[in-house]
Amino acid sequence: MKRLLLAAVLASAPLTALAAPNLGGVWKIKGAFPTMGVSYAATCTLKQDAAGHLAGVCAGDNGESDPATGRVVVSAGGKTAFEVGYDTHYSGVAIHLAYAGEQQANGQVVGAVNSTPGPQGTFTASR
């Protein structure tokens, strides 16, 4: 009976107790804002701590290297989510880019990029 009780407790433990997979490293991002006809590339070099927080720099087509922060989260369904944001410039205008996506079976991260101010687009990140 004690074994059944222990198995039930372990099975109901939240997934947040599991360590997030390490998504630190160098990521090549290809982004697009189709409504504006804009495509771009960026390279983010990120380190991940034990709590799943990401920090580093992202360098875009504009030649800037901007500080970036984010996090890695494992959902209740076991999916790995990647969120990273940074402030940069586009055509002389200050913008914030916020990436949110899920890691795919091939290791890429695919999702949406929001620009503030501005539209929503899509991105694919590979390392």
In sequence order, what are the helices and strands, one letter per element? Answer: HEEEEEEEE
CATH class assignment: Mainly Beta
Radius of gyration: 18 Å
Distance between the termini: 48 Å
CATH architecture: Beta Barrel
Overall geometry: globular
* Share of helix, binned: under 10%
Describe it for me?
The protein is mainly beta and 127 residues long. The chain has a single domain (17-126), classed as Lipocalin (Beta Barrel), CATH 2.40.128.120. 8% of the residues lie in helices and 59% in strands. It is built from one helix and eight strands, in the order H-E-E-E-E-E-E-E-E. The protein has one helix at 2-11, and strands at 25-33, 38-48, 53-60, 65-74, 80-90, 93-103, 109-116, 120-126. It has an eight-stranded antiparallel β-barrel. The radius of gyration is 18 Å and the shape is globular. Mean pLDDT is 86; it is low at 1-17.
